Amino acid sequence: MTVQSKSRGTRMKISGASAPVSTVSIGAQTVTVQAPAAAASTAPALQSEVLQPAARALAAMPDFDAGRVAELRELLAKGELPFDAGRLAGLIERFHGGRG
Which segments does the entry list as coiled coil (predicted)? Predict the structure, then answer.
């Protein structure tokens, strides 16, 4: 894969995104960079007897509670769960820093 960008008159070319070695060229200067090893292979295994059961329990949990989501949708549909669109918009704007 090759990505080319032009910024302030200097041409930048990045190649070898899927290879373990990448070559970056900026104008006439070329630099070869060794890609970092995969994080999973360098990460130490959990060795604490306390953390291992917690890690297994966390891995067994679903990404979200589908039952709770269905319950909240039903309450919204019935009008039994208050919804303030203005408040939600404000929270979204605050979270994203008001950037457009």
Answer: none
